[in-house]
Design brief:
single chain, 6-stranded parallel beta sheet, 14% strand
Length: 216
């Protein structure tokens, strides 16, 4: 019997190479609102969180009105984006197809909004591979385990038969909170130094390594 029944992916930085777009939209929002501009590396370090949580980390002393203005303007820039479109990492579609062929449940737990994820799934044409998805505006944001707990309940799968795959410490902390196993990818928003303290079960440098990892 395979070790896992359910494989849950993060989206940005794990399946989609969207870090540049996220950082640019955030910087454009700060500029439009005349807020103090954080460094790009600070913004990248927050990728994986919901927009509310990103704002709280970047501007901890701001008020609720400032947060809502940032969220609204960021979404405007993201939805009206005219720059180069983000792309899936090489091999993503093939890996997802193999997982489905091998009868895994496949799901997404992401810091994106529902509108944002649905737009990406439509643009990439890979939505049919996923049996369920959960977004940050439908549950508490990572690193809280609520998104992952919802998926465990939805599929009625034991946490120890579940593998969470992500590129940030927030993904790994969420998995720890939900008592699932975690696999880190090292090509995304957080470097190995931020991933290692959470002691993922393994690390991969290319999403195409996942099939071999699961075949162990």
């Amino acid at each position: 019997m395979a070790e896992y029944e359910l494989v849950v992916f993060d989206w940005d930085g794990t399946l989609m190479d969207s870090m540049s777009k996220i950082v640019t939209c955030a910087r454009d929002a700060f500029a439009e609102l005349n807020y103090n501009m954080p460094a790009s590396k600070e913004i990248q370090g927050c990728i994986g969180l919901g927009l509310d949580e990103i704002w709280q980390r970047l501007c901890p002393d701001s008020n609720e009105d400032g947060k809502q203005a940032f969220v609204d303007v960021y979404r405007k820039h993201w939805l009206s984006w005219t720059g180069p479109e983000s792309r899936l990492y090489d091999g993503v579609a093939e890996v997802l197809e193999q997982l489905k062929r091998n009868d895994y449940y496949v799901a997404i737990a992401t810091g994106k909004s529902r509108v944002g994820l649905d737009k990406d799934l439509a643009n990439t044409g890979i939505g049919h591979f996923f049996d369920a998805t959960r977004c940050a505006d439908e549950a508490r944001s990572k690193p809280h385990p609520e998104m992952l707990e919802y998926l465990l309940d939805y599929f009625a799968v034991d946490p120890k038969r579940t593998l969470m795959i992500g590129d940030t410490s927030f993904d790994l902390e969420m998995a720890q909170g939900a008592n699932t196993h975690a696999l880190a990818v090292t090509y995304g928003a957080h470097d190995v130094g931020r991933l290692e303290p959470w002691r993922p079960k393994g690390m991969i440098g290319d999403v195409r390594e996942l099939v071999g990892y699961l075949g162990k």
